[in-house]
Amino acid sequence: MKAIQVKQVGGPEAMELVELPVPQPKANEAVVKLAASGVNFIDVYFREGRYKAPLPLIPGNEGAGAVTAVGAEVKALKVGDHVAWAGVQGSYAEYAAVPADRLVPIPSDVSDQQAAAVMLQGMTAHYLSHDTFPLKQGETALVHAAAGGVGLLLVQMAHNIGARVIATVSSEEKAQLARGAGADEVIFYTQQDFEVETKRLTGGKGVDVVYDSVGRTTFEKGLNILRPRGMMVLFGGSSGAVPPFDLITLSQKGSLYVTRPSLFHYIATREELVARSSSLFSMIAEGKLKLRIEYRYPLAEAQQAHRDLEGRKTTGKLLLLP
Amino acid sequence: MKAIRVHNTGGPEVMKLEEVPVPQPKPAEAVVKVAVAGVNSIDGYFRDGRFRTPLPFIPGQEGAGVVTAVGARVKTAKIGDRVAWSGVLGSYAEFVVSPEEHLVPVPAAISEEQAAAAMVHGLTAHYLVTDAHKLKAGETALVHAAAGGVGLLLVQMARAIGARVIGTVSSDEKAQLAREAGADEVIVFTKQDFEVEVKRLTDGKGVEVVYDGVGKATFEKNLNVMRLRGMLVLYGMSSGPVLPVDPAKLSEKGSLYMARTTLAHFTATREELLARTSALFGMIGDGKLKLRIAKTYALADAPQAHRDMEARKIAGKLLLIP
To answer: Chain A: nearest CA to B246, how far in angstroms?
Structure first.
């Protein structure tokens, strides 16, 4: 089979197209012929060596396709089933062997490409809005980087719940996207102070929750715009890691809550993984969640896909089609 | 009237019994003849200067008594009403003046001693189990300093909800008190490592919530005894303030939540203050919540009361009788 391999960590050119044997399933695994593989920043971190994995490695943490072989202990899957996964390395390839308990079924009204596009970002938006801080109708949420991959999905889910959404974005083009996803208010953080604007937009009361994947540059101000007993959900650090902070600020600013969640802890059990992905797929099938799959690349162009992603010129999801 | 005054911050000896004029109410205030004043650790923080207030001042935040005068714009309080309060500085005196909105009615079934003893510790225990983390039947809570002023009430309330309670205490005598309050398990932290014990008692799973008024000494280990997505509620710092926290730790340890809470934010509106106190007085009146009034002192003996409090030898509430 064809696969992308990283033998030594480095830039996009470290990814080579190679010919490898099709993997055989272990007893608890299934082999999937990939229809689509999602491209994510985590793939860049593994390629660069910022995140460690044994070399050589096949990058890619998200994919969808059809089962072609199952191990002896696999009961719930059969050849031909359409399945998707997230969090198992090796999706930049024609075939991948994946533990069966990490594979979720794709319903017939969702395509493999759609499934591959939402496993990481969609399940992230889902756990943030439904579990980390279960949003309720009438609450107000601030979503940073609202036109980003997770952001656009999170805005739609928050809007569908009936929450008021205040979005921060960097450009007019991204503001349009955020509004299209259902943001009630959009703040251009490059031109306006989001602390001042959010206070104005909430009549000085502040928001119930801040969803922040930006980190270093937004964290402190985020604490200033939470209502008393509000929650800061820090789920990424695209501007850098938040430095250690003094807990007393949480009580001074109104008995605030802080959490730093990661997807893995919200799909830790099989039950939760299946429940979350099914809920997500239903939203897509019912047309309640719109995906923006803007870029599709053949497997051989994985390098270009990474260059485009890292250049931050893309808005919307990048897929490799092996 | 007689009052305790602090002219210079320092040890218990800086509290002097003096003769001062009876306060007069401003338009929205009432004057109360203090029947009982509660002694709290926060009084020590104001006395020694850790918390600042203009000098000279009359210490004491909590008490109960009878209204003797009202200002022109006071709406509901009347002369002769039995009332209680917390968060009103100046309670170590024969009379105190308070904004009307901080006074709550004391029902006939509750004595003034009970009311004064329950305001700070009881309201704190109440908001911790009902709001800071809404404790549910079947959950497991770790309560540090379980034989302390808040601890003994928190243990009782947690048990009444149907939660399993693991308490930590410093001595066998206090362990007995925590058990009598309903703790299912008690860890004497001077003899046992609470991290090891909590893991053993929960089969390695950890607890849903940690209620911690201790702070520095317990913080790091707390992060190791919570289940995935568990909550750490820090409501005090009897061992000193917690060092700055790296938020990445919360994700490494299992997408944990952290809150640093203070009572004022959970009694901020008049509605919430009244609802909380009436729930609290209801539990006391019904005999569901037992207060442990350890010792009462004459107003002149306030320095001795602070010495006893700070020596941490007496378990239960200390009261001054002006």
So the answer is: 4
